[in-house]
Amino acid sequence: MNIFFKLLTSMLFVLASNTVMSAQIYTIYGGSQNGVTVRDANTLAQISYFDPGFSASSIVAGNNNNMYLTSNNTIYNYRNTGTYISSFTFPDIGINYHEVAYAGNKIYTAYNGSQNGVTVRDSSSFNQLLFFDPGFAINGITAGNNNDMYLTSGNSIYNYSDTGTLLNSFTWSDTSILYSDTTFNGNNKLYTVYGGSQEGVTVRDASTLAQFNVVAPGFLASGIASGDSNDMYLTSANGIYRYSDTGVLLNSMIFPDTGINYTGITFASAVPVPAAIWLFISGFIGFVGIARRRHKV
């Protein structure tokens, strides 16, 4: 029994020392295979993957090891283990949810098709809080940190409140530029993919939309996600790339199947071990100590 207690206590101390689950990236893929891959954000090594049974058009991480996916007129909520949690299907089958963002227990979803606009919903119940039509077709959407969002369309970037009020906008002088996917990095920076006459990522001040610099990876990115260290993740064909926001390549992963096509990508911050686990660990270790003392008496 003494050996058992020592072994179990050692295991619990190991668990206690690993107080944080590593940051992860969730990436949609299609082509020769379909699904979502969950990878370590630093090494890009795959942790798990799953096929939800439909082709997802966009993805965003929630705040509790979960994610939101869009497909046609439906929004889905899944665990990062692939377990289905819930979903919402809009009754108009002509609606196409194509971009989704998350912040502050709200999901912001761009839609087109029979209608055009942004719907703001409760991330747990999917109850609609409001919706608005900005008057243009939306290419990309990301949530800010002050009940606001950023939208891209053509050669313009827009900042809206989540009540539909236009806060700011920027239009590039070259009309052949096309801004697509965009992401907010939490440090008041906005990273936006652009194609057309030029290709790259523009790094801008999230408040003024003034440009800091440009990242030119040498390919047109299909998806972008911000990390938590002034870095970004880009997808293109069967590759996932990690760059600093000054343009330095930090890491990359090329999947061996060239038929794979990575599209949407999202970053999930490291998650602290819940306090309940700490209470269990400390309580159990205390119990072990009492049991050992009683055994010796």
TrEMBL record:
InterPro entries: VPLPA-CTERM, WD40/YVTN_repeat-like_dom_sf. Coiled coil: none annotated. Keywords: Membrane, Transmembrane, Transmembrane helix. The chain crosses the membrane at residues 271-291. This is PEP-CTERM protein-sorting domain-containing protein. It comes from hydrothermal vent metagenome.
